[in-house]
Specification:
about 90 residues; alpha+beta; three-stranded antiparallel β-sheet; 5 strands; two-stranded antiparallel sheet
Length: about 90
Amino acid sequence: MADGQINDERHDCVVCGRLYSLQVTYDAEGQMRSCVATSPGVRVLPDPNQPLVTCSVHSGSEVGAALAERFFGPHAHEHDHAHQDEAEG
């Protein structure tokens, strides 16, 4: 891969799946170096390894729950809430 190669890519919102266009820059080793949204109404989430995006209308808790489900399984956010309830009770 050429150093500083820019790719036009499409990625889905981690919450609802809506597709967005991005320009992603990779270095010679294939590591992502930057990610810029070219679609309106999108937020790029900070992740050094992969482009992650969400619609600008989703709340932080919606995004957090979606990321937990995506990376840790469908019931990950329920597990976190159970620990919060135990700590509060």
